[in-house]
Amino acid sequence: MKVLIVEDDADLREIIVRSLEKERYVVSEAPDYRTALCKVEDYDYDCILLDIMLPDGNGLDLLNELHALGKRTNVIILSARDSLEDKVTGLDLGADDYLPKPFHLAELHARIKSVLRRNQREGERVISYGNIEIHPDHFRVLIDGKEIELNRKEYDILYYFLTRPGRLVNKNALAESVWGDHIDQVDNFDFIYAQIKNLRRRLREAGAKPELKSVYGFGYKLVME
To answer: Of the four, 16, 81, 165, 169, which is 20 to 30 A from 87 by CA?
Structure first.
């Protein structure tokens, strides 16, 4: 899962980055409005943590820009301005939640999981397709009820496809979601091919019915055999 932190306080931003990385999120940062706008124009995120008061603009304007770009991204506003007007405005503009500063990291983690769960697969705690089940809160993968071991990137790739069954996924979009921004600038995608190959083998050996199919010249999709 890919998260963008839009926060001008460098110390707070670092604390949030470290805590989210421990929770296995792919994290990007923006210290100001201009950087944040460039990132949301170029990349997609599962969740944006958005400060309102930025040195070069208002974070609420970024919500308007997301709408103009046609991007439906989960947004949690993080702001010291805990006024009713700010909350109402943010939610009216499309924010999913509002967390006033200061806050506990445990609550932030819970809020992120809540908005992601709410807006993906109708809030299910267990995501399934065919005989594959993923338990996102515990990073567990089961096939026919039996748990299998995957490394972190294999799990992230499987999760990405399991939340998009049957959908054709461009390898660039997959790389950005699982490895982070700017990964599209690498010379080749050998690292993706290797992880996909290993994941296919593990799923096949475990008897998974869904299969990751290659679509020549474009990417992959998860389909039932």
So the answer is: 16
CATH number for the domain formed by residue range(s) 2-119: 3.40.50.2300
Under CATH, which architecture does the 127-224 domain have?
Orthogonal Bundle (1.10)
Give 82's DSSP letter. -
In contact, 59 and 39? CB cutoff 8 Å: no
Element (H, E) at 146: strand 146-148
Instruction: Choose the weakest-confidence range: 33-47, 87-101, 184-198.
Output: 184-198
Under 8 Å CB-to-CB from 208, ≥6 apart: which residues?
130, 131, 132, 143
- How many whole angstroms separate alpha carbon 112 and alpha carbon 97? 9
Q: How far apart are CA 200 and CA 161, in angstroms?
A: 12
Residue ranges of domains in the chain: 2-119, 127-224
Percent of the chain with pLDDT over 90: 61
Report, as an integer, the average pLDDT of 21-40: 94
Cα separation, 43 vs 176, in Å, equals: 8
The answer to pTM > 0.85 is: no
Structure tokens at 41: 């124009």
How many whole angstroms separate alpha carbon 41 and alpha carbon 16? 23
Equal CATH topology for 2-119 and 127-224:
no
* Token pair belonging to 16: 């949030």
Separation of alpha carbons 177 and 93, rounded Å: 25
User: pLDDT tens digits for 108-145?
Assistant: 999 999 888 876 655 567 889 999 999 988 889 999 99
